User: Fold this.
Amino acid sequence: MIQSVNPEPGAVALYEQKNKELAEKVEKDIQSFDAIYDVAVIKGKEETLVAYKVKHLKRFGMKKIEKDINKLLEDHYPNEDFVVSSDYKIFIETIELLERMKDPSFSEKKAEQQLQRVISLKKEMT
Amino acid sequence: MGKKKNLTPVQQQYQQLEQKHEIKRPVWKNCLNAFWVGGLICAVGQAITYFYIYFFDFTEQTAGNPTVATMIFISMLLTGFGVYDHIGQFGGAGSAVPVTGFGNSVIAAAIEHRTEGFVLGVGGNMFKLAGSVILFGVFAAFIVALIKTLWTMMGVL
Amino acid sequence: MLTGKQTWQFSNSPVIESWGTSGGPFEAEGKLAADFDVLHDDLWMGQDSYEKAHRVLLEEAIHSALQKGEFQKEEIQFMLAGDLINQITPTSFAARTMAIPYFGLFGACSTSMEGLALASFIINYQGAKKVVTGASSHNAATEKQFRYPTEYGGQKPPTAQWTVTGAGAVVLTDNQDKQGKIVTTSATIGKVVDLGISDPFNMGGAMAPAAADTIISHLQDLHRHPSYYDLIVTGDLGRIGQATTYELLQQAGLEITREQFQDCGLLIYNEDQPVQSGGSGAGCSASVVYGHLLNHMKKGVYRKILVVATGALLSPLSFQQKETIPCIAHAVAIERN
Assistant:
C-alpha cells in the first residue's frame, strides 16, 4: 500500500503518440524529485493529471514539494494545464484508470469522463 | 504541590512526612503506556481512513470526517459497555487525547445523568467535561486564525 | 460521663444487640464477602438510579440488623444515620421508609462512628431504649457527585481510593444483661484538623493527622496504653494514610504494633482488585466494622477494639475553589464482656 512503487508508464487518455510522449516526459521530470517515489500521469483532453507519492519522512515538506512541482511544470510546459495531487485516493484512482485504459474496448470518451471524475474528487475539499 | 505559599510550618512539616509515604505516579510507565495506547488508537484511525479511501469516494482530504465519526462511534460503544474507563486507567493521556477520549467524556456524562431525564440530565450535563475542551478549542482556533490572517495581510506567508 | 478533654465514658455500657450489612458487586469479590448479609451483583440493585440504589443499601442493612435481633421497627426510638450525597437524601429517604424518628448526620466517612458515639450517648443517659445507627455509601452515586462520571476514562493516581458500595447498621439497646454481649464503653469526638493537603485524590494523606489526633486524645483522656486494645482500626485511610498515621503515632511515642493497627479500607478488598490505595466512603467503615469486625468479636477473635472512622469534609465545590481538605475522626471503643 505504501511501499510498492508503481512507475506505471505514463499512459494517455487520448491515444495520440504526441500526448503519450508528453506524459512520459512529465513522469520522468517528476521522478527526478528526491522526495517522490511514485508517479502516475494521465494526459486528458484539456488537463494533465499528475498524481504522486511523497516519501514518508519527507511529508513534512509536502506544501513546498507541490509548489516546486507546479513551478517545474509551469516552466517546462507553459502551454499545458496540470492538475497536481499527492492525495493517495487520487493516486489509486489514477492507477485504476490507467489499468482500464489498457483495454482497447474502453472508449476514449469514457476515459475522459473517468478522468474528470478523479479531477473533481481532487477539487472537493471537505 | 507547587503552591506551598500559605502553609504554616506545621503544615509544611506534615506534608514532608506525608510525601514519604505517598505512592508516586509511575510517570515513565504512564508515558510508555500512553505512547503505545495512543499510537494504537491512531493506527486504528489510520486503518479506518484507508478503508474509506479504498472503498468509498473519499480522498485523504475528505476521509477525515467519516473517520472521526466512526472513531467516536466505536468509543461510544466501548464507553457504554464499560470498557473505555479501564483503557483510560491504563493508557492515561494516550486514550484521553485522541478524539475517542473526547467522545468518551461526552458519552460518559450523558449516560451518568440519564437518570435526571433527557433535558435537565442528559442535555444539561452532557458537556460538563467536554464543554471546556470545546470552548477553549474554538477560542484557540480563533486566535490562531487571527494571527494567520494578520500574517497573510502583512505578506509574511 | 465526660472524661478528659473530649471523651465520653459510657458507664451503662450500651449493648450492640445486632448488626447488618449490605454491599455491591465489587465488595462481593473482596476479602470480606462472607461477612456481608446482603450482596448485590449489580450496582443498580434493581432501581432506576444510583441514588435509589444507595437508599436500598441502607434500608437492607437496617432490615437485616432488625431481623437478626428480632426487633420490630416500631420498637426503635431513634435512627441516626448519614451518607455522602448532597443533603444526605439517600439516608433521609431510607428514614422515610423506616418511619423511625430520625437524626440525619453528616461527618463524611466518619459518619459511622459519629452515629455510634451519639447513639451510645443517648442510650447511656436513658434517652432511648433502642436506637439504630448506620452509614452507607454507593460508589457510582458518590463518584458522580465528587469526581467524574463512572464510565469516564480518566486516569486515577495511585493515591486515589475506591468508594465502597455498602452500608452497615447496628441496633443499640439498654439491655441490662451484659453477659457476653458486645458493648460500647467510650467514645472520643475528634476536632477538625487541616494540614493543608488539597489533593482530593489523596484523602488518606489528608485524613491521617485527624486520625492520629483522635487516637492520641482518646488514649490520653482515658490514660490508656495502646496495648489495652486488641485492635485499633481506622475507617478508610488507605495505604498512604495508614502508613502516615502509623508514623505520626510512633512520633508521639505510642507503642503500637503494625498487626494491632488496621484499616477498614485495606481490609475490605483483595490485593488484586484495582482500588489503588484502598477503599473509602462512609460505607467502608460501617460495612467492615458492623460486619466483619463485630462477627469476629462475637467469635472471640477480638475482645477490645477501638474504631477510628475518619472523614474528609470536602465538597466538590470546595476543592474546585482550591480549598484545602479539613478532616475529622471519631473514635468509639467496642468491647466484649
Notes: Chain B has a mean pLDDT of 90.
